[in-house]
Every structure is written in C-alpha cells, then in structure tokens.
C-alpha cells in the first residue's frame, strides 16, 4: 500500500491519538506488569551452572581395606596354616615413577597389571574352575610398602590384589612397614 | 471502539510466578549441596590406578578423612601427577571448621574418629589421600584410624570410566 506524505502523517496522528484515548480509558486501574523475561534468563543460567557443577563425587570410588589389628588370634589347629603373601613395594625419592614390586618372597614384577595377573594365576579357586594355584581366595595378602613409596602405588598394589579376586587384603603393621 | 477490538489488543501473558518459585528452590538446593560436598572434600589428585576395581560405597554413614597435600597447581602436575614433594599439609576429619588437624596430631585424629564412632558405630571411614603422598605420611594416619577401633578403611580412588 502506498500513501502520500500527507496521508501517512494523517494516519500516524490518528493512530497515536487512538492509542492515547485507549490509555486514558484504562486509566490508573491498569496493573503495571514487570517484564520478567530477562530475570528468568539469568535464573536459568544460574540453575544450569549449579546443576552442571554439582558433581556429587560421582567419579570417586572406594577400595575397602582391612587394617592391622594387633597380633590377632592364632589360627585353629585343625586348619592348614596359610602362608601370607607379602607384597613388598620399594621406591626412591629421586624417581617416584619407578616402583619395585616383590612378593612371595622372591618374585619380582614389572608393573601392577602383571602383579594382578600373577596373583590371579596363583589363586586356587575350585568354585570358579581354577585348580592350578597355591593360595585360596581368602589367603591373607599383606601390603608392605617402603616409606618412600607414593600412595598411588600403594593403592595400585592393593587394587591388583583385589583385581586378582583375593578377599583378605590388608596393610602390614607399622613396625614391619617402615 | 468495540470491546472485542480492545481485548484483542491486550498482549497475552502467562503467570510465571510458580515457575520462578520452583526455579529459585532448585537454585538454592544446588548451591547448598555444592557447599556440603565441597566441605567434605579437599582439593587433591587421587590415586589414578591401573584397571581400577573401585566401587561406590552406597548410602552408609561415612566420615571422610582427607590427607591434604601441600599446595600445588593442577597445571604443574598435569603431565606427571607424582611431581609433588609428597608431604601432607593437614588432615581433615569429617566436616566443619574444627575438623582440621596437623598431619602429626595423631591423637587428635584418633579422638575425632572415636567421637564419630560413638555417634554411629557403623560409620565407614573414607580415606582420601593424594596419590603423590609418601607412604611414610599416610601410614601414621592409617595407624590413627586403627587406634580409634576401626577395622576397615575405604581407600578413595578414581572410578573406572565406564562406571
């Protein structure tokens, strides 16, 4: 639609006055409304931020370890004595990446995956079809780290014993440990 | 002007007040949960182990013992997490402002754990220690846990990626 300049001016004036008239009709009774859109935008941003950052420690898990509890009670005489598997860890302050693993009592292993594999091979577990091994799944395993071994390697050794499906894994008593 | 035309000119608007109420509640919830969780945990790099067999502890009474390492930057340890002096800064037992102990205050730690155990006998102890700490540092704290009459401790490490 095309208008001349005069006509369009006229229309504008008419439009404005109509709006003003309407406003006057409504008068002071009209309820003022806040524009909440931007506030909702911000609140949703905050909400998403807190939902995303609430991690609930989901990526952390636990390995349950037994602690040494004094000398303990002697084994019942009618049971075969069990030889504790001792996993010795050694390290030096100079190179924390290198860790020596020795167990039972002279075998050495290169890394913790190999330790888990060897421990698994040595397990005698008829219920799961394993007959070749020497140690029952509840045979005590004692982790005996050097004082200079990093905690990561200690937990790693612990995890290897758990991965090899031994159930009785514990830390060596303090006097023997350091 | 007729009434019908007047009504048509009014912009329709939703009543979003309940929505805002709910969203505010959610925000407050997540803020509080965030604070509670961060009060229980201390910034550290947990042991990153091969083929982890860690599991989730589930819903049990728990007290978290944090062995905090000396201050470090995540960038400095990004390529090699063990590049740290390996000494502990402090030990934090549970939550709250009075839960910090010196790493060599073993009696204090034992006493705090004994109190937790009296409050709920089935409490599980979670030991969060930085992977770079020396066993020399962590071992006395294990001893302190034992001295509180607690037989098992849950070592915290990262979970496997696939859950």
Keywords:
heterodimer; A: about 180 residues; alpha/beta; 5-stranded mixed β-sheet; 6 strands; about 15% strand; B: about 160 residues; about 35% helix
Q: Count of DSSP helices of chain B? A: 4
Q: What is the strand tally of chain A?
A: 6
Shape estimate of chain A: elongated
Strand order of the largest sheet of chain A: 4-3-2-5-6
Q: How far apart, in Å, are the first and last alpha carbons of chain B? A: 68 Å
Largest sheet of chain B: 5 strands, mixed
Mean pLDDT of chain B: 84
Strand order in the sheet with the most strands of chain B:
3-2-1-4-5
Describe it for me?
The complex is a heterodimer of chains A (178) and B (163). Chain A has helices at residues 5-26, 37-53, 112-121, 151-163, 174-177, and strands at 60-66, 85-91, 99-103, 107-109, 141-145, 169-171. Chain A has 178 residues and is of the alpha/beta class. In chain A, a hairpin with a 7-residue loop joins strand 2 and strand 3 (99-103). Chain A is elongated and about 105 Å long. Chain A starts with a helix and ends with a helix. Chain B starts with a helix and ends in a 5-residue tail after the last strand. At the A-B interface, helix 2, strand 1, helix 3 and helix 4 of A face helix 2, strand 4, helix 4 and strand 5 of B. Strand 1 (60-66) of chain A pairs antiparallel with strand 5 of chain B, so a sheet runs across the interface.
Briefly, what is this?
Chain A has 178 residues and is of the alpha/beta class. Chain A contains five helices and six strands.
Which helices and strands occur, and which strands form pairs?
The complex is a heterodimer of chains A (178) and B (163).
Chain A: H1 5-26, H2 37-53, E1 60-66, E2 85-91, E3 99-103, E4 107-109, H3 112-121, E5 141-145, H4 151-163, E6 169-171, H5 174-177
Parallel strand pairs in A: 2-5, 5-6
Antiparallel strand pairs in A: 2-3, 3-4
Chain B: H1 3-9, H2 17-40, E1 62-69, E2 88-93, E3 100-101, H3 106-119, E4 124-129, H4 135-147, E5 152-158
Parallel strand pairs in B: 1-4, 4-5
Antiparallel strand pairs in B: 1-2, 2-3
Helix pairs in contact in B: 3-4
């Amino acid at each position: 639609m095309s208008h001349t300049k005069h006509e369009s001016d006229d229309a504008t004036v008419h439009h404005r006055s109509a709006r003003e008239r309407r406003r006057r009709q409504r008068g002071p009774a009209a309820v003022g409304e806040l524009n909440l859109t931007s506030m909702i935008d911000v609140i949703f941003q905050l909400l998403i931020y807190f939902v995303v950052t609430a991690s609930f420690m989901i990526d952390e898990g636990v390995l349950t370890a037994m602690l040494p509890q004094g000398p303990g009670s002697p084994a019942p005489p009618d049971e075969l004595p069990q030889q504790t598997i001792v996993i010795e860890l050694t390290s030096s302050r100079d190179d924390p990446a290198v860790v020596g693993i020795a167990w039972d009592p002279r075998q050495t292993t290169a890394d913790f995956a190999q330790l888990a594999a060897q421990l698994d091979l040595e397990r005698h577990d008829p219920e799961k079809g394993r007959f070749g091994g020497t140690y029952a799944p509840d045979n005590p395993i004692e982790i005996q780290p050097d004082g200079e071994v990093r905690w990561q390697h200690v937990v790693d050794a612990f995890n290897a014993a758990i991965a090899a499906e031994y159930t009785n894994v514990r830390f060596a008593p303090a006097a023997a440990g350091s | 002007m007729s009434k019908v035309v007047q009504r048509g000119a009014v912009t329709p608007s939703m009543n979003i007040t309940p929505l805002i109420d709910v969203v505010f509640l959610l925000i407050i919830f997540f803020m509080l949960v965030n604070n509670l969780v961060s009060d229980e945990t201390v910034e550290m790099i947990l042991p990153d182990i091969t083929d982890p067999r860690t599991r989730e502890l589930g819903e049990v009474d728990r007290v978290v013992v944090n062995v905090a390492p000396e201050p470090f930057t995540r960038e400095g340890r990004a390529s090699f997490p063990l590049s740290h002096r390996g000494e502990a800064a402090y030990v934090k037992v549970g939550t709250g402002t009075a839960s910090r102990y010196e790493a060599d205050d073993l009696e204090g730690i034992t006493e705090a754990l004994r109190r937790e155990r009296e409050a709920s006998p089935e409490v599980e102890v979670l030991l969060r220690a930085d992977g770079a700490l020396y066993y020399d540092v962590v071992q006395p704290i294990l001893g302190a846990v034992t001295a509180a009459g607690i037989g098992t401790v849950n070592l915290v490490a990262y979970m496997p990626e696939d859950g």
